[in-house]
Amino acid sequence: MSARSQPFHSIQPLQPLNSGQLNARVNNITPVKPLRNYKENQYDLKQSTDGGKLSSATASGVNAPIVSQPQQQKKKKEKLSTLCKTPPSIVRTRTGRDYRRGTFLGEGGFARCFQMKDSSGKIYAAKTVAKASIKNEKTKTKLLSEIKIHKSLKHANIVNFVDCFEDDVNVYILLEICPNQSLMELLKTRKRVSEPEVRFFMVQIVGAIKYLHSRRVLHRDLKLGNIFFDPQMNLKIGDFGLASVLPSGNDSRKYTICGTPNYIAPEVLGGKSVGHSFEVDIWAIGIMMYALLIGKPPFQAKDVQVIYERIKKTEYSFPIDKPISYEAKTLIQDLLSLNPLHRPTIDEILQYDWFKGPFPDKTLEVSLNLTPGGLDQISKAQSAINFTNTKASAGIYTPKTKNPVEILRSDLHSEQPKTLLPQSLSPGDTKDKYQEVEPIGSTGRQSKKINFNSTYSTTIKRLNQICFETYQNMRRLEYSKHEMLDTMELPSCENPTLISKWVDYSNKYGFSYQLNTDDIGVLFNDENTILKLHNSDKFLELIYHENEGWTCIENSLLHPPLQSKKQLEIVDFFAKYMNSNLSKVSDNEDRKETVFLRRYTRTSEFIMFEMTNGNFQFNFKDHHKICISKGGLAITHISPSRMIQTHPLIFILKQGNFPSIEVPECLEKIAIIKDAIKKKAFKE
């Protein structure tokens, strides 16, 4: 058993939100009634590099993404923004606050943007939507949803929502002004952007997306044209016209095909048959990173359908004439994984080695036109400090004393006395894997004594963290295999502790195994483990607590706790069975460390064992076994005749096989192992 409509007239006002969320000096409010058989206007797909046409970052949210099935229109429709009338010189609101209209900033497919100045002289950007473009209830609901979502957000790297109001012909969304253009305009001027600068950009973007996702908000239209520079040259994400709040639940998804062609994730193109979730924003981060470093999006083409076909096949390349670092390519390739579950989560992105390169402390205004000098001379120590400070400024942190739900509640309570969407914005987080295995002692609770002594001193890391680090090292070695071995630091290569015998009885008790140290363990169905040490009167319990993580307790076989007696009988049952019926995988080894089985996975090709010391053992169906150890730096082969050889993985990758006994399809097996570990690292 395996483990695991009636259109508005020009003088008809928009129906206000409850609690005065939209305000105007208009008393006669007429509800919008949709006409029968009315089809909402199908918007044209944008085919430009980014789709943004605004000359200033103040025009947050006025670009025109698609909100329809991805098919070309026979006849190009007029932009809805052309229906927007120029606001009067003074726009009056119901609250008595008046705004003076300033210069025209630009337009997109749905709205126009103007400067607005209040009585104190402070300048804002006003996204202006024509009421004549709001043709039915669905369109109105989308506008009100954008207002509700954006109004509920407060983050250093998100365009600040100021106010919303209306007059007879327009709805106005008042936003903070970002006068230093967008990333799209920077790229058009610069053609390509340096890696140190893009590192800084990515941290600020990741901080904002982490904040959105913690409130279950999907942006769904992340692109260079929707990310703006404020007066201090900090990045701000804007345009929440396609944003949506994902309902709580383990399999909540959205099914609307929407976005901008060059940035759409492959699962979005699957529509109602597939659905999409937070991973679409992760994909867009990869597109933006590629575009900044290379100069254009990876799937760009003149024909939108060609773009879609390339996206579905992840058909792109890194131009030889535009070199970027191997670490940058690695991150981009993972961000643009075809399978959404293989993409790094928002928390895992900043763990990539690429962020260990030169890292500036801020973005300079000169960056709008040219590459600042001295970026490559930033020291490693200073880069680490700048990286840490930038993460803190972007609100990126790892909670140590609170669980994520508590932090969410306190954040919302302190920021928003009255949250517009309390049920949607403070639900339980579905990413339970971050609490899968917490480091021992991380929660500060003292109810259980942690009994790791000098013999059992290894702090147990989270499974996905071990998988991620091992996968990264294996990829790095694969890239480095053409370098000279004598210039590389090679790991020590002693034979690892291995699983020599196993019995899968998970349909009743659990999974039993015998190590080549003769220690016997059972991974019970409740995820707890008992390990009976060979030639010892001691046994170990590895117990998982939801809040405390993993606790290792040493007990005496002579006086075991009452609750352990039944489990010890099961261990003895399995020990007798394996000793009588199963042959060993390898010869006995002395115990160098105490090792438990953390997790196992069975497929048609192999069985995969994940151990507490970070080792991965793969038993293939042709009876050859391979173990990856030293965090992915060392590899061990166990032949069907129990011959063991251990070498640095880089040596085997370079030679193509083991020197003593050749392994059938050696490199193919290593590729299977790397892919299996990657899937575990990024699995939901």
Explained architecture:
- The protein is α+β, with helices and mostly antiparallel strands and 684 residues long.
- The chain has three domains: 18-176, Phosphorylase Kinase, domain 1; 183-396, Transferase(Phosphotransferase) domain 1 (Transferase(Phosphotransferase), domain 1, Orthogonal Bundle); 467-520 and 578-681, Arylsulfatase, C-terminal domain, CATH 3.30.1120.
- Helices cover 25% and strands 18% of the residues.
- It is built from 14 helices and 22 strands.
- The strands form five sheets. Strands 1-2-3-4-6-5 form a six-stranded antiparallel sheet, covered by helices on one side. A six-stranded antiparallel sheet has the order 11-12-13-14-15-16, with helices on one face. A six-stranded antiparallel sheet has the order 17-18-19-20-21-22.
- The model is unreliable at 1-64, 67-75 and 398-459 (pLDDT under 50).
In short:
This is Serine/threonine-protein kinase. The protein is an alpha+beta fold and 684 residues long.
From the structure above, extract its key features:
elongated, alpha+beta, 18% strand, disordered N terminus, 684 residues, Transferase(Phosphotransferase), domain 1, Phosphorylase Kinase, domain 1, six-stranded antiparallel sheet, 22 strands, 3 domains, Arylsulfatase, C-terminal domain
